[in-house]
Amino acid sequence: MSTLNHKIDFAVVFTVNKANPNGDPLNGNRPRQDFNGHGEISDVAIKRKIRNRLQDEGVPILVQSDERRSDSYRSIKDRAESVEELKKLLSKAKATGADEQTAEAIACETWYDVRAFGQVFAFKGTKMSIGVRGPVSIHTATSIEPVDVTSMQITKSVNSVTNEKDPSQKTSDTMGMKHRVDFGVYVCYGSINPQLAERTGFSKEDAEMLKEVLKTLFANDASSARPDGSMEVNKLLWWEHNSKLGQYSSAAVHRSLKVEKVKNEFPATIENYRIVATPLEGLSVEEYDGL
């Protein structure tokens, strides 16, 4: 594995078409919006999709969704303690700095998402806590324009349980609501810090794997809230600097991307938008269309 010795920035442009990309549980599971009405998808949700795509490719992942887990472990603690050497270190009553570094190295070598995003190993019943800081940072995805949210009331055709008072009548749980974004173009930014990559062992090959995953971020992500094809990666932009510090700050690189609406036509499509990365002197950008 080759050590990552230069900074990387990236951006993903994607569309949401009649889907709920990331419901807010504190707001009736309505699609997330900021104060100005722009749609939002949390960084946690984006990382979840990345982990799921990596799992599809057979890559070892620590933080697995219970419904998508590829092993018999039902918690992060159980999965971590399945590595015997790591379990021994976590249970040490008097751990040294060397023990913590060894445990961190084992975790990073074992699971891709630990060496990419980091992880806190602090579980009930363990003696030692470890914090791993990962090199890959992901921003909250935000829509270019305010999004329209449509809500519809739905009913089940059958009761979940029999109505005790009158079996022929429907119970209250047959009524519900579904919410969706009619259409939105979202942008998610991210970066890879080579100094932190050295510590976790995140390699050039790991970065290439992340790049490929981002191209197909929503594959195998369908649900009743996100029908297959309702979310699509349209463009991935990948900037590679020539040094660890980078020629430009991540903020400057991300600002160089402009996504603008050029047509106000219906139905709304990505063709109504212009995606342009303004050249930065000495810094090239690779552009990939979603697959």
UniProtKB/TrEMBL annotation:
The record's region (Disordered) falls at 19-38
Species assigned in the record:
Sporosarcina contaminans
Pfam families (alphabetical)? Cas_Cas7 (PF05107)
Q: What protein name applies here?
A: Type I-C CRISPR-associated protein Cas7/Csd2
**Lineage summary:** Bacteria, Bacillati, Bacillota, Bacilli, Bacillales
Source gene? cas7c
Among InterPro entries, the record links this protein to: Cas7_Csh2/Csh2, CRISPR-assoc_prot_Cas7/Csd2
Which superkingdom?
Bacteria
